[in-house]
Amino acid sequence: MYSTTYNFISSLLCKVTGRDNALLTDGGEHADLASTIAFAIAKEEKRNPAEVATELVEKIREELEAEIDCTITTLGPYINFVFGSSYCARAVELAQVLGYGTGVVSKDPQQVSICLEHTSANPNGPLHVGHIRNTILGDTLARCFRKAGYPVEVQFYVNDMGRQIAIVSWGIEWQKQDMSHASKKGDHLVADVYIQANRDLEAEPAHATEIEKLMQGVEAGDPEVLRRFRVPVMRCLNGFKETLARLDVQHDRFIFESDFVKNGDTERLLARIARLPIAKHEETLSLDLSEYGFEKEYVLRRSDGTSVYAARDLAYHRWKAHNFSRVIDVLGADHKLIGKQLQATLEVLGEKPPAILFFEFVSLPEGSMSTRRGKFISADELLDEVLERAKAEVAARRPDLSDSERDAIARSVSVSAIRYDIVKTIPEKSTVFNWKEALDFEKQSGPYIQYAHARACSMLQKAREAGWAGESAVSSSLVYETPYEIALVKHIAKFPSIIQQVVSDSRPHLLAIYARELADLFNSFYHAEPVLKSEGITRESRLALVAATQNTLQEALLTLGIDPLSAM
Predict the structure, then answer these.
(1) Which end of the chain has fewer CB atoms at under 10 Å, N or C?
(2) Helices (H), 149-178
(3) Which residues pair with 24 in a beta bridge?
């Protein structure tokens, strides 16, 4: 509804001005939409912007008001658009439909295949809180693409032949470690080996030559070395999958780095790179990317002839570019240099580079983390701690429920707390996970939005028990007049456009902000306007608005990867 109206007004302004951009934005407190196009025209024609705005309004008023229930006015040089009552009524009708906001893209989404890579943590220890910001941003973005109607394949790129895995493989033999150890989760067992192996290597540096031999053996395809690497990698990946499942995250495919060595893609790509004018052949093979703003050389092959991670990553991204129409990576800020070098190199090669969503770090009040040093708080520990705190909160609020009912709510609430607290912050900003705020039912948290949804469900259930026929009212019978009703309706109408904006700009935090604002507006409406105690058309209209809110909150929460609980 909002998107259709926006597009009509934009095209109308472009038509009468002969421009490609209507300079249309959110109108803030003054209007639903506003245009600053009069500024641009006045500057070129050396005229008064307010006069230009008035002229434009007169040119479009008749056609606009014939098509849309909308009042158009000027405020100095600004052209303001305020949507009317029939717009509000129609928006509520549309928002009650199951799946509201689905398939919002204007072109055929089936013609655009998306490959989205996220998490891709090194399999040398469990996921920690830094990794799961990558996970939650990536999973939310994938959900938004699917909500918009795009086919998406979510991939996890497995670094199964890097130095860290060589150290783990060596450590297993050196420590005589039993990797079939059933009493410990696989990724935590691998971390134990890796941490101790690093300590052993620091104590006896001569063993570093054994690590180099392992790395040469895995690249040469030595079956025994490949087996030694694969065992801890798979144990770790299985542990990852358990953790990701607790966050309701799944990957469609795990792509192994070693496959691009085995199939020859890495060597063929390095042969192409070696012929580039910017290639440097010294002890190593590297690229001089100074023309692209990089002082540091991009090393792709070691002096012993083995490829480095960056070379295999280039082969992987070339494969993705040839199999998908749009490629997106989610990477931490510590990968910004190599990510941008990868993009530049693919452009030099005439290949399509990925779009990269870089994010800053999330940490806990306890401080920074390092797997190598053994100083980290795993995602499993974080999930366990938040779950225990959620259980205590739910028990205090709902002593009337059984233990199993409280536990089920607490599990959903704990995941909601983590996912929302991490995704709500703009990716480029670092953040600290705040235990108390994340589980606050009364403030801007995931559980707060779940609680608003549960409140709407409760109101609708009570109305049905009192004889309400359900969500059947058509727009012609709905009336919205109070400021609280109108503000809530107009925010609901924006939901499809928010999904569209998230996928076009790769900004998942926008959906988190939208959902919290919707919960705020619903709570303000709930406290200001009687619903169940109102009568006649007012009662029918308000119940329809509650139903539209419930459905929109449900769709938003599902797209955020959060359970839309009906009771809390």
Answers:
(1) C
(2) 163-175
(3) 35
